[in-house]
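Notebook p. 47: complex prediction with iron/sulfur cluster.
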Amino acid sequence: MALTGLDIFKQLPKTNCKDCGSPTCLAFAMAMANGKASLDMCPHASEAAKEFLGSATAPPVRTVKVGVGEQEIVMGDETVLFRHDKTFYHPTAIAVQISDTLSGAELDAKIAKVNGLVMDRVGQKIAIDLVAVTNCSGNAATFKAAVEAVAAKANFALLLVGDVAALEAAVPAVAAKKPLIHAATAENWEKVVALAKANNCPVVVKGNGLDDTAALVEKVAAQYKELVIDFGNTSQSKTLGEMVNARRLAIKKKFRPFGYPMLACTQATEAREEILEAATYVAKYASIVCLKADEKAQLLPLMAWRMNIYTDPQKPMAVEAKVYEIGDVGPDCPVYVCTNFALTYFAVEGEVVGSKIPGYIVAVDTDGSSVLTAWAAGKFVAEPIAEFVEKTGIMGKVNHKSIVIPGYVAIISGKLKEKSGLDVIVGPQEAAGIPAFAKARYPQLMK
Amino acid sequence: MATNILKEKYTGKICTTTLGATKEQGGTRTSTVTVGGDATMPFLHFEGEMPLGPVVAMEIQDINPGWHPELDKVYAEVINNPIAWAKKCVEFGADLIYVKLAGAHPDNGNKSPEDCAKLVKDILAAVGVPLIVVGCGDDEKDSAVLPVVAEAAAGENLLIGLAKQDSYKSIAAAAMVHKHKVLAQSPLDINICKQLSILITELGLSAENIVIDPSTAALGYGIEYTYSILERGRLGALSGDKMLSVPVICQVGYEAWRAKEAVASEEDFPNWGDQAERAILWEAMTATGLLQGGAHIMVLRHPEAVRLFKKNAEALMEKPEI
Ligand code: B12
Ligand code: SF4
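Predicted complex, structure tokens below:
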């Protein structure tokens, strides 16, 4: 349970010495309760107060890291149950499985395929995050060989899934890459946790449902806290219920055993079904989803879902409102007008690039809202557009007098023409129509 | 041991709403669809009742909508014949048929209200599932068409719309007189969403007669706004706000099938992989994602997206021991 200002005040020296920068101990306590001050700012706090307040004000979900360098993934440190309450911080990592039954050329081909799971959408690079090497062979030496091969060639952090013997064989060989070890269970946890600790790697604690897992986490956490929870997924609705409970208890009750990132492996056997199952876990609190699907066409929708759930609802994703020059522009190039909502801008930019006809894009300041949203709010209508285009001076750089507007706001073309004195060309509705539009209209500019 | 369960105590729940009417109920449907009744956040069976699962409405239009070739592959033989098209959707497992009267639009053929009503009657005669009927999107024309359709289909308990903040009156009034439910759409704003329910109930229809679309956005194109509005609406409903306690419909197919990631060819975007696979999953993922926010009726287009969505929804409806 979150502490109130009064709870905190009771632990302070009550001398009002102001050394913390607050006028009184009570004011300081209130600031702490609101997360605006931390106890280390009071030099006079007793050890007892530090202990009491330290554990109570620790973040509800511990931060755990996997991998090193560019492959590092940060998990946890979430503070809310609903994204509209603040935001979610660390996007669910996607782990794709590779079985250790593959070897030689087959294994190399699989690693190459998984390495290729990197795509671009709306101006952002999106990719999977982990390769999960799985000890399907049941043989420790085979596992070690596969893990070493993957570690040498894969571009992502490692999740190593095996029994004690397999993990003991493989983990020391790749410890420098800080893999995540899967899993410490009721039967083997002492050995697996010792292995994780010795190699300085995070470890997954896998139980069977809520109570069993909480008990196991408590035992492990007494020795080692770099851990991730797995409730032992047997059904999607059960895992959903467990993860929601665990996160609620961690955030609302500060229940320590559940104050760690969570991992879920999909149950579905068919790739498309796996992707939809994974969507549930992305929405409801998994820090890692582990799946077998490895086709770009399947992972792209899942990655887009993750991207959306983890966007910050407090600030619209906006690009600077200005003129962008796409390609080797010259005076006869088209001038496209759109809004400065990041999604809108990147959709248009991608298509102008794709059209292979250089052009200018005027991203009008709409406070980061989309074409129709801005139109409905009066921010993307004739007058502000005319003013903005004028202000940028863009029409002085070209030898024509026309601008292209999005098809969805065709309705403003008359008024815009009147206000701006320019020829207003109504473009296609979807940005995807820009290449065909541009090729038909400006064939002479084709590069 | 239940010590590790944190159940929220809710005072409200979502209305239970039935669409369609059988002969005994004054219509001609051979099956009806009932949604709602949820007393928990989505699929948290340990904490409250969620008696009825999500359902799928498959979309058809009165004129060939010029859909993506991947959808044409599926519907080529029926796309110019709404009646055959509706039947085909029933074969694909549609719980309801969503009929868009696009041809009534002044720019799209300007079909008369009477022609629209006749078509709806013909579809009702051809299939036994309940219908959702929406206008062409031109507010003025829809205000003329929908009351005529409502009258022709009196007693069938259609879900009819779209009723919007500034154009709800004629639709809601017609629904009330001819015993239909109202599909109310608000532009991604929880206050307008609530306000619209209030306005409609003030005309004399109870909340049980409303289904809301809080504005659906596609995966990758604003879906997070819809998702958060759904969560906020559901939390409001569970805490006793009657005007938010109505079932939710999401018009997924239209949104998903205009997203670039769904429709761009593999030739143009080799790095995105197979286009058909992407498109089907884009649609299924939009629906599945929104389901976690709290929604009841999904309007879909591709039969494989329907299958995938339903299979996932079934798994979520299993009541586990926690
Ligand atoms: C997400 C959303 C919001 C978000 C805003 C997100 C944002 N940053 O803009 C929120 C919740 C804040 C919002 C608020 C409102 N919204 Co809103 N919103 C949407 C929604 C669901 C998606 C919009 C979106 O993000 N699209 C994705 C972007 C990328 O699309 P886009 O900018 O149009 O760009 C595409 C094309 O236009 C084209 N394009 C863009 N630029 C150019 C340029 C050229 C030259 C060319 C050729 C093409 C081109 O390419 C892009 C990709 O194809 C739509 C409904 C829908 N499903 O579309 C409603 C919608 C746009 N909203 C609407 C309304 C009314 C509002 C409000 C006024 C409601 C209110 N509360 O009163 C407010 C306004 C808030 C304000 N004061 O600013 C209405 C618009 C009315 C209309 N057209 O009839 C819509 C259509 C919903 C509806 N059906 O009623 N909204
Ligand atoms: S420094 Fe400590 S003792 Fe001094 S006023 Fe601040 S809280 Fe009180």
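Notes: Chain B has a mean pLDDT of 96. The pocket of iron/sulfur cluster (ligand 2) is lined by residues A 12-13, 15-20, 22, 25, 28, 42, 44 (CB under 6 Å).
Next step: compare against the earlier run before touching the bench.
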